Model the fold of this input.
Amino acid sequence: MTEQQFIPNLYTKTVETGKITWESPSNIALVKYWGKKNDQIPENPSISFTLTDCKTITTLYYSKKENNDEFSFEVFLDNEKKGDFKPKIETFFKRIEVYLPFLKEYHFKIETTNTFPHSSGIASSASGMSALALCLMSLEKQLIDNMDENYFNKKASFLARLGSGSACRSVEGDLVVWGKHENIEGSSDLFGIKYPYKVHGNFRNYQDTILLVDKGEKQVSSTVGHNLMHNHPFAEERFKQAQQNLSTLMGIIESGDLNSFIEIVESEALTLHAMMMTSMPYFILMKPNTLEIINKIWAFRKETGLHVGFTLDAGANVHMLYPEKEMKPILEFINNELVAYIENAHYIVDKIGLGASQIII
Ligand code: DP6
Done:
């Protein structure tokens, strides 16, 4: 598919007012997206687990307005008006207007809430932008005669990508690929697709326990970090490596080989942070406790033979990934040995999930 296919024909119906609610989960990348071209096109393909409990719930209220000169909207987070969210959404609306030409015809009230604490260091852009994109798609669906589910999901993911790259991987579950990979049929730089091949039973209900090492604001945003991949001395090799790692991971997803899974996923996480440390200007998002935890995980794994590995996103928090059947001893290990390294002993037990859903009230 091309961008052109997401530009609608003339709308055949009209709707005056109403509201739509979607909940959309966060996701955690196994092969990381780090580096992008213009228009949110990734430099390499990525693959992620969609989560279940870490999600954003967004209600979009819409009412037709008189003039169509400009965007008109207000944003609320947890019932509080959020003026500082407006520029990001304004930019998003500008980027997607050509694909949703009704945007200036309505006044919108966007009410949003996250199930995870706002200041948890968990990025809400993936779940937030995908939830908003899905609400807008539900509105568009009412303006035309027939929209099939496949097109709906693809376009929602396509729009979400224009809000935040990783958001395009939050529409569906349980494993989602975004970015063209020659061995993955249907993969595209424009939107995420559900991983189309066999997934071994070892990954069913795979767990992600998120240790909140640092709840503060990030010093360097992802967007700035992505841009530092332009002229980065290791960029080309990194983009090639991500392609290769995804190929290797495909075999692992089929065979269920958890040791090899851990090896690729941990290497991806450390490579992501290595890219940050070797950018110019360079920066470090891990904290001393991130490293303490990583070392503890390695020692625990060696001692017990359990299949717990870690990944990191663009921050200090540690995502511990492990199969459901090993949950009990791993949670004990977290409670006994790791809580000392996390802020207010705060961690979130989440797992792989099936994607966003509309809430009909
Ligand atoms: C490290 O999707 O937050 O989490 O497209 O600029 O909004 P923008 O960036 P964003 O980057 C996420 C980067 C990452 C890796 C990943 O999720 O693949």
In short: The longest helix spans residues 235-255. The mean pLDDT is 96. Helices lie at 86-96, 125-143, 149-163, 222-227, 235-255, 258-277, 288-304, 327-338. The CA atoms of residues 285 and 315 lie 5 Å apart.
